[in-house]
Amino acid sequence: MQWYLKYMYFCNIKRKNLRINFYSQKNNLNINMKKAAIVLLGAFAIAILFESCAQKRCDAYKSTNRYRAENLR
Predict the structure, then answer these.
(1) Domain range for residue 61?
(2) Residue 39 vs residues 4, 10, 19, 25: alpha-carbon distances, Å
(3) Cα torsion at 46, 47, 48, 53 (round to 10°)?
């Protein structure tokens, strides 16, 4: 009977460790997903910033005399 109790104790410790490992892996996955979301949002913000800057440069160029002379004949 004593060996059975030792075996059950060992299995319980092993199961508890597996449970802890599962939750830590799940937590790491959540952290990685959050990092990926932050990186994607940052890339999207940079793309919007560059697009607006490019639009401003295009509008500034269209207001020059050189553009008018070349394209508005």
Answers:
(1) 2-71
(2) 52, 43, 30, 21
(3) 90
64 three-class SS: coil
Number of domains in the chain: 1
Secondary element (H or E) of residue 2: helix 2-62
Task: Say if residues 11 and 5 touch (Cβ distance below 8 Å).
Answer: no
pTM: 0.47
Rounded to an integer, the average pLDDT of 28-53 is 84
DSSP string over 4-69: HHHHHHHHHHHHHHHHHHHHHHHHHHHHHHHHHHHHHHHHHHHHHHHHHHHHHHHHHHHTSHHHHH
- Could you identify the residue written with the tokens 């008018």? 68
